[in-house]
Amino acid sequence: MNCAFDKEKLSGYYDGELDAAEKAEVERHIASCSECLRELGELKSSALLVKELPRLRAPRSIAEGVAREIQTAGKVHQFAKVRRSVLWAAAAAAGIFVVLNVAYFIRAERPSGDPAVVAKPTSIASVPPPAAEPAPVAKQEESLRRATPLEERERKLAVEDRKKERAESPLEEAKKLDEKTRQFQAEPSRPLPVPAPEPKPAAARGAEPNKPADLPAPPPAPPAVKPVVPAPAPGVLAGKDDARPAAEAPAEKAAVAKAEPMAKDKDADVKAKRTADLQGEAPPTHLTLASTQLAKARPVMDETLKRMGVKLPAAAPTAPVKSMAGKSGPVETTLTLELTDSQIARLRQELEKSGHSRLVVASPGDPVLQQFGDSGLYRATRKDVASGGAGGGVKKAAEAPKADAAKPEVAKTGAAETKEADREKDGKEAGDSAKSNLEGAAADKSQEPKRRIILHLLDVPFMPDQQPAPDPVKK
Amino acid sequence: MSAFDPTGAAGPAASLRELPDRELVARCQRSEAGAFDELVARHQDRVYTAVTRFCGNAEDAADIVQRAFINAFRKIQEFKGDSAFSTWIYRIAFNQAISFRRENRRPAVSIYTKDEEKVVEPAVDSNPTEKMEGEETQKKVQQALEQLEEGDRQIILLKDLQGHSYDEIAAIMQIPKGTVRSRLHRARLELKSKLKSYIGTLK
Question: What is the ipTM of this complex?
Fold first, then answer.
């Protein structure tokens, strides 16, 4: 066993698996090495012993068993074919359902807006540049923190109301509606993205951003009577960016007025609202009906209004038309109506049935309005939608049934879910939180209070889930 | 699929016999009746012999080989034809045998207890004395084989019993060709040492 020859080659040699050079090498070697020659002999004899083992005939049971299996499989296969096609059909149906749902929610989500977009200053020159692209929610929160006292008060009330909705059983319809009314006032955008954090020490707020559901219930405020505050209304109403100190707001307002074609109206609204606030009356509510097919939406609206017994201010399209000078696209029409909340809800339902229209709350300072641009046009980009709208929509679809559970998600997915969840609550189970808020204002329970609606009709070239158009406001 | 005809009688099966494995596989993949039966008929004896020598138990071997063919039938659509069908079925059968033995550790029942009618090709068939000697030798070899590591046993059976080339063995065992040579050499030396005394007496 002293030979250093690569003995593996002996096996290769015996098996005829060596190339010519190796074969010659082995032959040369074994001619002179008795050790390797002996080993080769032993390999051969061992291999031969195995080779001489008898071949066996497979028992019939093998082939018969296989044949049985094949026959069974054939039957199963046919059954499976049918079953598979059924499953495919079911899967396809489910897929279509999901796609439609997602599409619907994306559409529903988009105009109401991604808080990131909302928080970002847009076209107003005086607005400071966005501090940081990430952390839109934090930014939103910051803006809320710095909100004017009036706003804060209103938001506080809204939070409180919502909490009560969850805590207590639903009241009668009148109270619900009254509650809804209040929310309309409290939050310019009914589905406010971030449920207003109540005033807390800044540190505490920083520690748990956007967890409205966890906030302790504030003491029942005397809500219906609007607090008589030296209204920082310009800030509220111009409210492009609540993050700015209220002191800046008047200048800001001027800028907004410049940018918006309906600035004068708004200015009037500002005054109206201020007065209304002071008197505890409802300010006019701005609604935007954005539609890609306004020509179709308009008769629907008229018809719905007629059915509800609401007088149109004038023959359909005769309300003051604000032409967008120099802009080929949209034409804006404004109507002033008096509607109850249930009428608004119904109108919205009717209008949005078609899919080509959206009725959104569009008070100044409302994030929804911002999403829709200064003129009311939706101006989110695809990026905005990808980051907030679509994702939020899908998520929301999953979370909608449990509105409360959606709340903690706010930090992650933006306030949109919360907004949606709240909207659902608002719509379906407006609680009796109004009870405590009814004292002063909502004296009449049987008669639903009407609110003054300034309805902006917009013929938009696309809906949020369609292709984004250039910002109509940008210079 | 039609009922399997183990005797391979006349009819469509007769013409299938002329076809190469590759074509039979293609027909199986098109669910053609009888094609897989022909593949079974064609390969079952060799696979059964190898598996029986591998696990040392005829009944287990029959079970294993049947399952191997059934598995092959179920996966026939996945068979891409990169290797020969024989290579594929050997691989399936050996894997089946290895897992079977791991699951059912029990003393092997010698294949010589009741399988004599299955022997189709006796090693030595000249006279009764030689036959007895032959049987004794086979027993010894089988016992020695069963003492080898599974991989060594497998490679010796594939090469020395079945006469597969290094390339085929590499494909069946999924190891490099170079490894086949070294492993085979090592396994032969191991078997030789198990049979040392016996080989000595033969000499």
Answer: 0.82
